[in-house]
Specification:
Layout: E1 3-4, E2 13-21, H1 27-36, E3 42-45, H2 47-52, H3 54-62, E4 66-69, H4 82-93, E5 99-100, H5 114-117, E6 122-124, E7 128-129, H6 137-147, E8 153-157, H7 171-184, E9 189-190
Parallel strand pairs: 1-6, 2-3, 2-8, 2-9, 3-4, 5-6, 7-8
Helix pairs in contact: 6-7
Length: about 200
């Protein structure tokens, strides 16, 4: 099973990725920030939120961002329920995903998902994990700025697997995001995962 942590180190491209949405409180705001900077990104969505907030999923897709499968319910172990998430995404967008990300980067959750095992879908990890679920905005900015390099895949969160967290969890990340972009665009070109040369 091939797990991808970064793209080509010889090319100054970088990919921002967002997990655990779509989120009715934050995703559109994040899309607006990305749009203001002309950035296309990749969103690894949860099937349960896709079904609850289909119009936000459509908005992500219609604005030209890549949609990835992050399972249906963000399980910690057992079956990754990628199939159920894939069905939810397809029912709304009419397209299948090419990229998946296992919750907690636990690729054991991919073991029963045949498209992942066969290599039909790319399993995406990361080399820059912002820890934005626990860091304040300055910590997020510092960590990303220090660790980002050519071909980096940066993990951020526009949501949470827990309903009680979705209103507040992305707040520090959102506060940091404009400066993160300003810092990185001096060194890198922002691209979607399918443009990163994995």
């Amino acid at each position: 099973m091939n797990v991808i942590k970064n793209g080509n180190r010889d090319i100054n491209k970088i990919a921002l990725t967002f997990d655990d949405g779509p989120n009715p409180f934050w995703t559109i705001k994040i899309l607006d920030v990305l749009g203001n900077h002309g950035i296309k990104s990749s969103f690894f969505v949860l099937g349960k939120w896709v079904e609850k907030y289909p119009n936000i999923l459509k908005e992500i897709f219609n604005r030209g961002h890549l949609i990835g499968n992050h399972t249906y319910s963000h399980p910690e172990k057992g079956d990754g329920d990628f199939e159920r998430a894939e069905e939810a995404i397809f029912n709304i967008l009419g397209v299948h995903t090419d990229f998946i990300r296992a919750p907690y980067f636990n690729t054991d959750l991919c073991n029963n998902y045949i498209p992942a095992v066969s290599g039909e879908k790319k399993i995406i990890d990361s080399d820059v994990v912002s820890h934005d679920w626990k860091n304040n905005s300055q910590g997020i900015k510092d960590l990303i700025n220090q660790q980002a390099q050519n071909g980096s895949i940066v993990v951020l969160h526009d949501g949470s697997q827990r309903a009680e967290e979705i209103e507040n969890r992305p707040a520090e990340m959102f506060k940091a995001l404009p400066e993160v972009i300003e810092n990185l665009k001096e060194r890198f070109q922002f691209v979607r995962l399918d443009e990163l040369r994995l």
